[in-house]
Amino acid sequence: MTTPHGHRRPSSGIGRRTLLGIAGLGVPAAAIGAYQMRAAGAPEIVDPAPSAPSAAPSVTPSPFADADPDQKLGGTVPYRAGKAMRGSYLGLKGKTYAEALALRKKQLGRTERIVHVFYAWEDRLPTSIPYLPKSAVPLVSWRGAKYKNILNGKSDDLIAAAARRIRALDQPTLLRWGWEMNGHWYEWGGKKNGDDPDGYVECYRRLHRIFDEEGADNVSWVWSPNWNANPQEAWNATENYYPGDDYVDWVGVSGYNLHEESPQTLFDGIYQGFSARKPIMITEVGSMDWGGTTKADWITAFARYVQERPAIGAVVWFDTDTHESYTEDWRTDTDEASIAAYRALAQNARFAG
Questions:
Q1: How far is CA 38 from the centre of its chain?
Q2: Cα-atom radius of gyration of the chain, to the nearest Å?
Q3: If DSSP codes are grouped into helix, strand and coil, which group holds residue 28?
């Protein structure tokens, strides 16, 4: 067994507020631009129109109109129409992961369907997760590396070993490699690799090929950009990082309510760009608290947002108060109103996937 690592700080030391909010850098709220599409059929991502939290969805209620009819949506962790699997990354002070899972089950009356764990590039990926509930699937977020260290072949053995370990889990597993690549904060982002999104695509496809060669056919591949790209330059358009439909089972997205952004602002760019062809997973989400019932109100608005967008097939909360050096408290039980709103979300039939 390998002990999972938390959502580690980036080597640059940039704070989580900077990493996730971006608005503090002067980036527009609807920051995923409608740029020139890249080759290989990448969908165009458009700016979401400003809307109130209760606005109706801006896409057809029948998802996946452009999807390959012979392709199993979601891969080994299948998308289920009308359902959104609910899960979380849990890091609670003074509690093991198992104890944190038990607390949330008691509070919510529901077991997590997705358990999120993080690993560094050189970590040994898990072959077992003893605390994983029987009905849950793991979401393994695996940090990346500089593109040159992957494309030169020197990491092939490391990747192959990782594939064999994930294969040994012997259950459907969501794998999110090199997330938020469209930001400037991680070493696997295009900005830190010569402004070269094509290099990311090549790395992603190389990992996919090696996993296939090692027989890791229990993997569902999650491609997961940040909700907005930074820097806001044409080369860094989010769709430029898309590896192609043949390499992606779920399209994920990270988005945090740091500056009173609505769910529409955070997620509609990705939703509109991909929901006709791939199931959508909210891979990281959380909300700040500005006093009163603001956090609870945002959770309620988010639940309504997901109910109105049928292509969203999974939601994974960032539920922690152990994120060192960051002031935000992302726990869902910071007050009675917030945990009540989150309980209502968890018990809604839409989130019973």
A1: 22
A2: 19
A3: coil
- Could you identify the residue written with the tokens 């080759």? 39
Between the alpha carbon of residue 331 and those of residues 87, 105, 223, 319, the distances in Å are: 13, 14, 25, 5
Spatial distance between the Cα atoms of 312 and 229, rounded to a whole number of angstroms: 21
pTM: 0.85
When mean pLDDT is compared over 32-46, 53-67, 334-348, the highest value belongs to 334-348
Considering only 78-92, 104-118, 256-270, 320-334, which range has the smallest mean pLDDT? 320-334
Q: Which amino acid is at 15?
A: G
Residue type present at position 118? F
User: Would you kindly state where each structural domain of the chain is located, as residue ranges?
Assistant: 67-351
Residue 270 near residue 32 (C-beta atoms within 8 A): yes
Tokens found for residue 255: 């988005």
Domain 67-351 has CATH 3.30.110.70: no
Return d(Cα 141, Cα 224) in angstroms, integer. 10
Closest CA to 256 of 222, 228, 237, 224: 228
